[in-house]
Design a protein that fits this description.
By secondary structure, this protein is of the alpha+beta class. It is built from eleven helices and ten strands.
């Protein structure tokens, strides 16, 4: 009897081990104390029936009380371990930290700034103007005939009377020519509006950049040299360029400017429709009528002008197949570009 009670007291001291045990050690303790075959408390309970009847009751009560203490201690500590594991899984300190989202310049904004900076180095100043214009600034002063299709309400957004949302940034050219005497060299970025469908290559609202140079003695050679220098700064130093005859009401002669396809390097691909060339801008020598409409002597002054779409230029540089990707604000797409999103 005394030996059995001493064994119970000695085993009770092991209760102190339970709160310190990790999950694996806790399972080992349960086996050592309560295991069916070799558990220390199991052996004590098995010895109780062998005692004399007078001693059996006291020894059995002490052994069962100790069993309940161990079971409660094991259960409480298991709950503690599970709660701690839940917190660890929630935090999961082994995972790499998530990058914090931060603001950045949109790809098209980056292209606009880069283009303006290149022309700034060539002596051009950035100019801006209102987005709501009169027909005179948007069409008439630019030598558009009164029956030109672009002046129809099906092609332009009229706000009332002869006021409309500008269809190009060319009105700023007229405002600049009327306000400042030559020499003039300006580059004009801004949003323009047209009744175009929103598809893979068109948008009803988009950025445009135009440029204007007017002075005495400016020739077609100056015009080609300036735009060629821009293309080789913006793309690559060995980029090939070509000028194709075209027509615009406000320039004469007029030309479309193509650059070597940046995807296939001129060999032909789906992006350039197997031609090896990508059109990036329309341009030409300023029409004498435009100069006269602004009060300048067209016999004394000459100049050149151009207009380009930075969305299309961004698509050309980066091989983007659908212009809508530049409008959808999909961070998975925009994050690919330097200074984009994260």
């Amino acid at each position: 009897m005394r030996d059995l009670l001493a064994a119970i007291d000695a085993l009770r001291e092991r209760l102190q081990e339970v709160p310190q045990a990790d999950d694996r050690r806790l399972q080992d303790l349960k086996t050592e104390v309560l295991g069916r075959k070799g558990g220390a408390l199991t052996k004590i309970l098995a010895a109780v029936p062998k005692l004399a009847p007078a001693e059996r009751k006291a020894a059995g009560a002490a052994a069962n009380a100790l069993k309940r203490e161990f079971e409660e201690a094991f259960a409480a500590h298991e709950r503690t371990l599970k709660a701690g594991a839940g917190v660890a899984r929630e935090l999961d300190l082994t995972m790499p930290g998530r990058a914090q989202w931060r603001g950045g310049l949109h790809l098209v904004t980056q292209v606009v700034d880069e283009i303006c900076e290149i022309f700034h180095e060539l002596g051009f100043t950035r100019a801006v103007g209102p987005e709501a214009e009169t027909e005179r600034y948007n069409f008439t002063a630019l030598n558009f005939p009164k029956d030109h299709p672009a002046m129809d309400a099906q092609d332009s957004f009229y706000l009332g009377g002869d006021v409309l949302l500008r269809t190009h940034t060319s009105p700023v050219q007229i405002r600049t020519l009327e306000r400042y005497p030559p020499p003039i060299r300006v580059v004009i970025p801004g949003q323009v509006y047209r009744r175009d469908p929103f598809d893979a290559s068109h948008s009803p609202v988009f950025e445009q950049i135009e440029g204007l140079a007017v002075d005495e003695g400016i020739t077609f050679v100056d015009f080609k040299a300036t735009l060629t220098a821009f293309a080789r700064r913006f793309f690559t130093a060995d980029t090939r360029v070509r000028f194709r005859p075209s027509f615009f009401p406000f320039t004469e002669p007029s030309a479309e400017m193509d650059v070597q396809c940046q995807i296939c390097k001129g060999t032909g691909c789906a992006t350039c429709k197997q031609t090896g060339w990508m059109e990036i801008l329309g341009s030409g020598m300023v029409h004498p009528a435009v100069l006269e409409n602004c009060g300048l002597d067209s016999e004394r002054y000459t100049g050149f002008a151009w207009g380009m779409g930075p969305h299309r230029i961004a698509m050309t540089r980066h091989g983007i197949p659908d212009i809508r990707l530049l409008f959808e604000s999909d961070m998975r797409f925009l994050a690919q570009f330097a200074g984009g999103t994260r």
